[in-house]
Amino acid sequence: MRALLLAVLSVGIVGRQAGAQASDATPSGVMRPQLAWQHWVLNCQGCHRADGTGSQGTAPSLAGMVARFVTVPGGREYLGRVPGVATAALSDADLAELLNWTLWRFDRSHLSEKFRPYTAAELSVLRRRPLRTEASRVRATLVRRFPGKP
Amino acid sequence: MNGSRRLDVVAERLSRALAGRTSRRGLLNILGGVLVGASGLPLLPVARGADKGASTTGPSDTHVEHSTGNPQDPGDQTSCDYWRYCAIDGALCSCCGGSVNSCPPGTEMSPITWIGTCRNPADERHYIISYNDCCGGAACGRCGCHKNEGDRPIVRPQNNNEITWCFGTQSQAYSCSTARILGVPLKDS
Amino acid sequence: MSSSRRRGRWITALALVSGLAQAAATDKFPTPLPNDADLSVRKLPAEYPQGWAFLAYSNEKFELRDVGSDERTVEGHLPGHESATLLVSTKRPELYVADTVWARGNRGQRTDFITIYDKQTLLPVGEVVLPGAKRALVVPMQGMFSFAADEQLATVFNFTPAASVTVVDLVQRKVLSEIEIPGCSLAYPSGPRGFATLCAGGTLLNVQLNAKGEVASRKESEPFNQLDTDPLFTASTVANGIRYFPSLHGRIQPLDLRGAEAKVLPDWSLVSAAEAAANWRPSGLQLITSGDDGRLYVIMQSNAHEGTHKDGGSEVWVFDPASRARVATIRLFRPALSIEVTHDREPLLLVAAKEQLDVYELPHGSFVRSLDTTAGPRSILIEAVR
User: Hey, what domains does chain C have and what are their CATH numbers?
Assistant: First the structure.
């Protein structure tokens, strides 16, 4: 399928984005938001849903939630090791942009100015050790560290 | 009961029994063949009205082409060859009371789905196609298609058409599949 | 003459003629047939003959069939409903079907359950309800429902779309645990008490269990499954203890899952450069199997291209995994979607070809017989009796 995408002779028509407008403030760490959206659609949206709300107990909700992880110790690493991210069919650079875009798209309010966007180098290390049988436990521990109310 | 009426009843009973009981693949197995068009059952050789001395053969093809009328979206939306169906696996909602992008009444469109890309021969673009399944209704079993372009083993579920994509719905019983356009991939992706 | 009188005369004439015929027949057989015994149900033998096989019809039902003789008899059935999968025990006189139903047919409360059947009566003798109603509802394939720990345990692959494995103790007939395997899919028996699963980073995750069925150890391999360019099929076969997976472009990936530590062995190619250039590739559903002789049998199609990997093929190529050489080519008169080799002393190659099951003698591949199936255009899975 990626070969198909590479072979596209598109005249560059922009796809539809549910919600986010290209004219909004640019997400930090995202050079090509349109491409990030496309990667989101093809790799993530199918399970996490177009609005990022996911499904109870299955694909976790990202909306209003996902950026909270980068505010607690261990959370930043978690987002790079969660299997949906770590083993996504994307290069480190594309993955970094996708992750930064996802945080901005679904949980902008929890991103502070202090947020350092993910880089390809950082993700290349994190994604080598995907979480597996312990993934839920790790997530639950991190969620308990979230300050205050959601 | 005359011969043609009896065959109708048998066919109807068979269809109900199958629709109520089977998964999409089971029903397609039993009905047989890659079914094209709205007529999902094997065509019966005896025409109605044969007992009245009318012609002993009826129309041999009940398939009706359903095209959009839009030259940029060419093809018959009830045929497996329609461009959006390049990786569809299941029954076409276009033959089941829905359409290429909507579910039949009595079903629920699953928000959780798998997504592929297909080439539109009219404008030569590859489009991102979302194959949302319709769930909870009867197993329609018409227009069964089994296309696998871009399908990959289940270890990459987002590229796999063997999963019954009925999640986040009241029921997970499969009815049929749609093929919704989500956008166009970028040239340099 | 009125029509009723005319009818009356015809009836009388018919009665006379049939009466005469009857008199002649009863002379030939002076004693009538004995009455049938009371209500009766046939029972299967304690050991099934090795010419029998289970045909899984997209798992609407499982048909036990005599494929080894021209009788072609149907010996029995097990029911299935939604993505039902079968395991046949070689240790206990039992069969196991993992299945899913909804309380109102296609809606209502969903129940996933394993039914335990007695091998001779095909009657349910037990049941294990699987919690959470999470069983993967997919086109039935290997790895959805597998034995582990020498048939003491079974693993059920769940997909919600979160992936996990439910571990069931088949002897005690109860659920032991649910183990999350995010990003991984399907489960194969591994080690003395565990399972292995293939993951989205191209790796294999090996999980060993403790007595309670919980994770005792887990280890992930280095990436070896080339998911972008040449992914492994989900179909595999075990020959001489090694599990072999074919890939989309015709490699073979052996995995040694016998010990507690899984070993990814070197892969090799089923196709020569010329064959690859002609786009000979494996294709089908149950597209690889093995015989008791340790050989691998793979369905091959020529002129393969994107999208043809489930179409099946016109030839079965036979390989010796030790020498990696092709030792035979069996040309089929009808393309195969699934294949299986029986465990008979004189093994047979079973070929599911849509509505028919074709049977060929081995090793030369001479056609023997066809059996009708109710499979339609989609293939069946086949399990030969051991």
Answer: 229-386 (2.130.10.10)
- For each of the domains in chain A, give its residue range(s) and CATH number, in order of start: 37-144 (1.10.760.10)
Interface of C with A in 164-203 (CB under 8 A): 179-184, 199-202
When comparing pLDDT for C9 and C168, which is higher?
C168
Compare CB distances from C228 to A2, A57, A86 and report the shortest one's residue: A2
CA distance B23 to C137: 10
* Mean pLDDT over each residue of chain C, to the nearest integer: 94
d(CA A114, nearest CA chain B) in Å = 30
- Gap between the Cα atoms of B85 and B73, Å rounded: 12
Quote ipTM for the complex.
Answer: 0.87
Residue A84's closest CA among A104, A108, A105, A58?
Answer: A58
**Is the CB of residue A45 less than 8 Å from the CB of residue C159?**
no
- Known catalytic membership, residue B133: yes
Closest residue on chain B to A13 (Cα):
B184
* Residue among B30, B139, B148 minimizing CB distance to C376: B30
Tell me how far apart the alpha carbons of residues B187 and C50 are, in angstroms, rounded to a whole number.
57
Which residue did the predictor score with more confidence, C217 or C6? Answer: C217
Please indicate whether, in this complex, the C-beta atoms of A131 and C181 are within 8 angstroms of each other. Answer: no
Interface with B, mutate which of A10, A41, A94 (most B CBs under 10 A): A10
Would the CB atoms of C199 and A87 count as touching at under 8 Å? yes
Closest CA to A67 of A113, A36, A24: A113
- Beta carbons within 10 angstroms of residue C355's beta carbon: 16
- Distances in whole angstroms, Cα of residue C9 to Cα of each of C14, C21, C23: 9, 19, 21
Give the angle B142-B144-B149 at the CA atoms, nearest 5°.
150
Report the pLDDT value the prediction gives residue C364, as an integer from 0 to 100: 92
Supply the CATH classification number for the domain B3-39+66-183.
2.60.30.10
Tokens 């997530």 belong to A139
Chain A stretch 74-133, residues whose beta carbon is closer than 8 A to a beta carbon of chain C: 82-84, 86-89, 127, 130-133
Please identify which of the residues B73, B89, B114, B165 carries the catalytic annotation: B114
SS3 A56: coil
The distance of Cα B108 from the centroid of its chain, to the nearest Å, equals: 16
Rounded Cα distance, A112 and C157, in Å: 40
Counting every residue, how long is chain A? 150
Q: Which pLDDT value is given to residue B36?
A: 37
**Tokens describing residue C357:** 């099951």
Closest CA to C100 of C140, C56, C122, C133: C133
Q: How confident is the model at residue B61 (pLDDT cuts 50, 70, 90)?
A: low
* Contact partners, residue A144, CB within 8 Å, separation at least 6: none
CA distance, residue A41 to nearest chain B CA (Å)? 8
Chain A positions touching B180 (Cβ under 8 A) are: none
Higher-pLDDT residue of C284 and A12 is C284
Residue of C nearest to B167 (CA): C160
What is the number of H-type helices and E-type strands within chain C?
2, 30
Q: What are phi and psi of C250, to 5 degrees?
A: 95, 25
Query: A21: which 2 tokens?
Result: 């407008």
From chain C, pick out residues whose CB is under 8 angstroms from the CB of A131.
Answer: 182
The string of pLDDT tens digits covering residues C294-345 is 999 999 999 999 999 999 999 999 999 999 999 999 999 999 999 999 999 9
What is the predicted pLDDT for the residue at C4?
76
- Write the pLDDT tens digit of every residue in C132-145: 999 999 999 999 99
Length of chain C, please?
386
Q: Is the pTM of this model over 0.90?
A: no
Cα–Cα distance for residue pair B141/C57, rounded to 1 Å? 16
